[in-house]
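Q: Please design a sequence for this.
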């Protein structure tokens, strides 16, 4: 039997102590129960920079990655606004936290990456197929592994969490481990390839899974590193300056049909052409441009200009 509560003073000022305030529930429509997520925003900036090291070697062209402001919304609302067509959702374990994060990739974006990866211009099937091809699924797996590795690096200064790639669902609407009314924290990264339009890469965290570390997520990231030792820094700099990096140049990259490639035999000639300047690559990244010539009886490249480095914040 429930007894009626006895009358109480109206406010804390009358009773001599502050009135207790309950935090909003995770399922309520109130403001974000996890706070301002300032630390998670810093993690996303780190991850955005790291994602360039995943996509640029894969696509062999410059990309830009930017982290959008974090949003918290119902899962069914996210699906209705962001997953209206073919998409994939890869589950990512977050031990010791409960629940799983989700990596959501747009289907058209996935097919575009496949075409670019194999040397194409980035064509997308029109109309999109109803499901992913085996090649597209392999691309999703490769992206999930690379993104998860960089996600772990971004979280390293914040909390000790072991991210582990799980299964991939080719229809996010069919996910059974999360209900539509559950709230998710969306971290969106906008990837721009060359001069193309930005495309989203979404990471969704179940809000309930992040609740145990809500206090950490709403504070600035404090580095765990100790104060730098000047002598150690100098020794590291000298050692870094002695690291040998592979430098190469590509005169030409001709393309030929597969049938011609399969029929090649000794003595066949493949014509090539190249302009007055060729790229100079350091560890696979374009560093400079120059012209082919000779020096001391050996083939050489005269450097004409150093390629500008992109601003890491872009």
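A: Design:
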């Amino acid at each position: 039997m429930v007894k009626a509560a006895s009358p109480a003073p109206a406010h804390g000022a009358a009773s001599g102590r502050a009135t207790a305030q309950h935090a909003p529930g995770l399922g309520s429509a109130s403001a974000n129960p996890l706070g301002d997520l300032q630390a998670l925003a810093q993690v996303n900036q780190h991850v955005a920079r790291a994602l360039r090291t995943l996509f640029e070697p894969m696509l062999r062209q410059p990309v830009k990655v930017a982290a959008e402001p974090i949003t918290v919304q119902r899962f069914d609302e996210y699906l209705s606004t962001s997953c209206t067509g073919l998409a994939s959702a890869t589950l990512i374990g977050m031990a010791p936290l409960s629940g799983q994060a989700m990596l959501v990739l747009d289907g058209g974006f996935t097919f575009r990456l496949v075409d670019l990866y194999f040397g194409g211009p980035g064509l997308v099937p029109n109309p999109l197929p109803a499901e992913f091809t085996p090649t597209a699924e392999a691309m999703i797996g490769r992206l999930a592994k690379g993104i998860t590795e960089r996600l772990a690096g971004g979280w390293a200064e914040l909390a000790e969490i072991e991210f582990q790639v799980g299964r991939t669902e080719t229809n996010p609407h069919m996910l059974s481990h999360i209900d539509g009314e559950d709230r998710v924290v969306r971290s969106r990264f906008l990837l721009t390839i060359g001069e193309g339009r930005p495309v989203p890469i979404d990471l969704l965290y179940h809000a309930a899974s992040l609740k145990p570390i809500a206090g950490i997520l709403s504070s600035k990231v404090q580095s765990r590193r100790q104060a730098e030792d000047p002598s150690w820094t100098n020794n590291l700099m000298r050692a870094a300056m002695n690291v040998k990096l592979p430098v190469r140049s590509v005169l030409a990259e001709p393309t030929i049909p597969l049938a011609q490639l399969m029929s090649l035999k000794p003595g066949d000639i493949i014509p090539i052409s190249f302009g007055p300047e060729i790229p100079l690559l350091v560890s696979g990244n374009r560093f400079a441009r120059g012209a082919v010539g000779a020096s001391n009886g050996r083939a050489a490249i005269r450097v004409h200009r150093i390629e500008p480095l992109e601003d890491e914040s872009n």
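Q: Thanks. Anything notable?
A: The mean pLDDT is 82. Residues 38-59 form the longest helix (22 residues).
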